[in-house]
Amino acid sequence: MATKAFELKPGMATREAFGKALVELGRENKDVVALDADLSKSTFTHLFGKEFPERFFSCGIAEANMVGVAAGLASSGKIPFAASFSCFLLNKSFEQLRVAVAYPGVNVKVVGTHSGISIGEDGPSQMSVEEVSLACSLPGFVVLAPADEVATRALVRAAAEHVGPVFIRTGRPKVPVVYSPDQDFQIGTAVEVIAGWDVSIIANGLMVAEAIRAQKALEAEGVSARVIDMHTVKPLDREAIRRAAVETGAIVVAEEHLVDGGLGVRVAQAVAQMEPCPMEFVGLQNTYAESGTPEGLLDKYGLLARDIIAAVRKALSRKR
Amino acid sequence: MLMRQEHTLEELQVLAKRIRREIVQMIGEAKSGHPGGSLSAVEILVTLFFDVMRHDPSNPQWRDRDRCVLSKGHGCPALYAVLAEAGYTPVEQLNTLRKLGSIYQGHPDKRFLPVLEASTGSLGQGLSIGLGMALAARLDGRPTRVYVVLGDGEIQEGQIWEAAMFGAYHKVDNLVAIVDYNRMQLDGFIKDIMEVEPLIPKWKSFGWQVIELDGHDIPALQAAFAEAASVKGQPTVIIAHTVKGKGVSFMENNPKFHGVAPTKEEVQLALEELK
Q1: Separation of alpha carbons B127 and B108, rounded Å
Q2: What is the pLDDT of residues A229-273, one digit of tens each?
Q3: Domains of chain A from N-terminus onward
Q4: Has residue B15 got a pLDDT over 50?
Q5: Chain A residue whose CA is closest to B140
Q6: Domain-embedded: residue B127
Q7: Which alpha helices (H) appear in B141-245, and where do they start and end?
Q8: Hey, of A31, A76, A108, which one would you mutate to test binding to chain B, going by the most B CBs within 10 A of its CB?
Q9: Contact list, B170 vs chain A (CB under 8 Å)
Q10: Is residue B3 in some structural domain?
Q11: Inter-chain contact B131–A68, Cβ cutoff 8 Å?
Q12: Which class for A156: exposed (0-12), middle (13-18), buried (19 or more C-beta within 10 A)?
């Protein structure tokens, strides 16, 4: 873990950072190819398609076939990035991800955009609130949920270098920049964004920025909160979790996902095995969301700094 | 380096019969498996592996090899016997089919048998995987051709038609799909479960070159694969009319032997017929 000074600055959407990173990879390695299911302007794979038309495969609105084709490309030495909205990729192609990708362990990278509820007005049929759970259930998969453009660029590159299946979760809205450009990211190694000793807030995706906002407010009250970016949901950084449990004695997990089956339950499993301590969970509670502005949705469904602070107080009240 | 093997028709037919015996024996020994759809695909696989495909058992990962994906994974006893006879895997282990730790898993599993091009068994997926392999070869400028063996019931899966659209749209002319058209699936005759006809207009309308033949006629298969190799700008599908359970009289066209193993006595009867 590394601690970095930071301030939240306006940044681009993680989906856009993915699209740009993919073009960089395409320039460096001719084996990198991309596939998209009629959403390339939204997933930003159109940038890759424009520069490398012969390495970009338009699949039409047929995600299952797209994942199968990606598996075939990968078993012939290519490094395919197959992109679509997270909800369609993981739900419509789950069977193909299972049998054609995870089971033989082929080197396919699956990138979901428009994850979580922050996509806004399009509503729940396009929102993805189950896919971290689905992706983590696949043996051998690496599951990544970057917080900002810096993390996304680094983790897309790390995914290309990793041999084996990877799912990367990105979002639709612009999100604040958390990291300085030189921040180091390793798959499976959490980043301690802010040091703290009373409680740990473990978050990923756009909830990292909310965790930072919560930490600032808590600090004003005299509560020292550690903020950990668990950008790799699988394999989990168990050592960072163990230290959080031992050194801070209370943990709040915050994610833009259903609390049933996401980052929270995986962290809780690790905590229960290693060092039980009071835990609370911020996320979507057994419901689908609705149409609205991203800000309005995060407010209504309890995914703001305010909600993390409330969870911290609850966890602290149970701390011995 | 072995590339193309030269065999006479008689040799290929003798080989096909030996492979049928091995199929019946290994499924009998395993006490479970799918004899009907294994026996119907024998000539298709024998023609591919012993005549048509460029491959090298002494160098299974040869980059430029032709590839065969058995999308109808439940027919794997036929593929296992063919791979063993071709020299990739031990013939003497065929009777470990479906047993714990065997390289011959119940459905094709690359983890146990890396020489397999794909792990299959969940129907409908092999054509997409094969198309990816064919595209990779095209990108690299490799001569690889890809052969995907489909079940007839399998093409009821929607993914097959997603893949059919994709193959035609991307002009994947280095891929051939073969439909093992034995007219039966687990629950009975295809026409009574979910009709797939009219098959030829269907594939044609999806943009594929279509060749129809008797799937047990080796010279016809040889001619069709040669014809497919000359087609440019579109993929080819071979509609191979076959007999489920081919070669064993009491298994032929008998829906019972889709997914039920022969008893010891039935294995003996079958081996008598396959002498």
Answers
A1: 15
A2: 999 999 999 999 999 999 999 999 999 999 999 999 999 999 999
A3: 14-169 (3.40.50.970), 191-317 (3.40.50.920)
A4: yes
A5: A31
A6: yes
A7: 158-169, 190-193, 199-205, 218-230
A8: A76
A9: 57
A10: no
A11: yes
A12: buried
Cβ-defined contact of A75 to B118 (cutoff 8 Å): yes
Bridge partners for A177 per DSSP: A9
Active site residues of A: 63
> Is this prediction's ipTM beyond 0.90?
yes
Q: How many CB pairs under 8 A join A and B?
A: 106
- CB proximity A72 to B under 8 Å: yes
Q: What is the 3-state secondary structure (H, E, C) of chain A?
A: CCCCCCCCECCCEHHHHHHHHHHHHHHHCCCEEEEECCCHHHHCCHHHHHHCHHHEEECCCCHHHHHHHHHHHHCCCCEEEEEEEHHHHHHHCHHHHHHHHHCCCCCCEEEEECCECCCCCCCCCCCECCHHHHHHCCCCCEEECCCCHHHHHHHHHHHHHCCCCEEEECCCCECCECCCCCCCCECCECEEEECCCCEEEEECCCHHHHHHHHHHHHHHCCCCEEEEECCEEECCCHHHHHHHHHHHCCEEEEEEEECCCCHHHHHHHHHHHHCCCCEEEEEECCCCCCCCCHHHHHHHCCCCHHHHHHHHHHHHHCCC
- Residue position matching structure tokens 């497919």: B228
Q: Is A257 in the B-facing interface, judged by CB distances under 8 Å?
A: no
Summarised one tens digit per residue, pLDDT across range A145-202 is 999 999 999 999 999 999 999 999 999 999 999 999 999 999 999 999 999 999 999 9
The Cα of B163 is separated from the nearest Cα of chain A by a number of Å equal to: 6
CATH of the domain at B80: 3.40.50.970
Smallest Cβ–Cβ distance between B118 and the set A59, A60, A104 belongs to: A104
Domain carrying residue B25: 9-273
For chain B, the domain total comes to: 1
Chain A closest-CA separation from residue B121 CA (Å): 8
Cβ-based neighbours of A67, under 8 Å, separated by 6 or more: A82, A89, A93, A96, A97, A100, A101, A108, A110, B128
Closest-CA residue to B176 (of B184, B167, B187): B167
* pLDDT digit string, tens, across residues A205-215: 999 999 999 99
The reply to whether residue A68 touches residue B128, judged by beta carbons under 8 angstroms, is yes
Q: Residue B243 falls within a domain, yes or no?
A: yes
Tokens of B92: 């003497």
Considering the domain boundaries, does residue B183 fall inside one? yes
